[in-house]
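User: I'll paste a sequence; please echo it back and then give the predicted structure.

Assistant: Echoing your sequence first, then the prediction.
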Amino acid sequence: MKLAFLGLGVMGYPMAGHLARAGHDVTVYNRSGAKAEQWVAAHGGRSAATPAAAAAGAQIVMMCVGNDDDVRAVANGPSGALAGMAPGATLVDHTTASAEVAREVFAAAKAKGVSFLDAPVSGGQAGAENGKLTIMVGGEQAAYAGAESVLATYARAVTLMGGPGAGQLTKMVNQICIAGLVEGLSEGIHFAMRAGLDPLLVLDVISKGAAQSWQMENRGKTMVADKFDFGFAVDWMRKDLAICLAEARRNGAMLPVTAVVDQLYAHVQARGGGRWDTSSLVRLLNHPK
């Protein structure tokens, strides 16, 4: 298929690469043109100077950018994707953003005869590189059916969760759960150390029982080793939790643990840890000052 991918960050770069390796004709756009040229040198295809130019003639356009304002600019700005897309095409947004902006772009796309899917992902950089992301999708069934096989190129699971915004709401649930899990794991490791136990042996034992989690399996050892210079940055998590808390204020959900963890991440940022992995919460407990 003729495709476009807009945004070649740590997630978008490998995701677009999977599309090219699957044999699709891919045009890319990135705010930094040098990154787009680097991608073309590695994967073939073409780069374009604007989202509209990249999207011109594409059957499906994927985008993965930073936040709500980026989504609005790249999707619906004067030189945004919708300006270059033809009726009948589909725009898929992999950005973790608000349900509100998803519904905005859905309406703008529909007015132009273009389908829109909000499709945030979970799995991190490793999931993107290995083609093993989990994609939660909001939008109309017909648009989803037309895009599902393409999205599966870099995913182990692609699921339609409901109408416009449902993908973003599901990603909020994902981040709420992760926030609590990471804090619980941090407290457990901290407690084990203070109790004089071997924390690695503790993790090995309890990972075989009900306490097991992705965070424990993939972050436990590095948390014990006090290593955080990799992974999903605290700055990004705070952006996501702000979206969750704002939505909770709208829908009346109570998120007391999420609110506390958000403030703990603010303390990590104040220590200069904005780019540390989210598992760095344990450092606040082990080194309170």
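The first strand starts at residue 2 and ends at 6. Residues 169-286 form a domain with the N-(1-d-carboxylethyl)-l-norvaline Dehydrogenase; domain 2 fold (CATH 1.10.1040.10).
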